[in-house]
Amino acid sequence: MPAGAVEGLCARERSELHMAEEELTLSCPRCGQAFKSAIQMDSATWAAIRMDLGLIERCPHCGWSSPFSKSDYFFEPSVTEF
Ligand SMILES: [Zn+2]
To answer: How far is the CA of 67 from the centre of ligand 1 (A)?
Structure first.
C-alpha cells in the first residue's frame, strides 16, 4: 500500500473523531459518581487494545482508589461547558 493512502486514511479518521468526541469514563464503586478516566483514547483504539491488568484510578469525588478492569470503562460524549 502506498504511504500516501495510509496518511489520508488517518487524517480522515482524526477529523471524524474530533467531530464526535468521547471521554473514557468510570463509575466509582464507592460513591457511584461517574468520573473521567486518567487515560483518554478514542473508542476504536480502546476496542483494539488488550487490558489484562486492572488500572488503578482515583475518584475525584471521594478520593477512592481502586483497580478497574476494561469492562468497567465506558464512553461518554464529552460535555463542553461554556
Ligand atoms: Zn467516588
So the answer is: 13
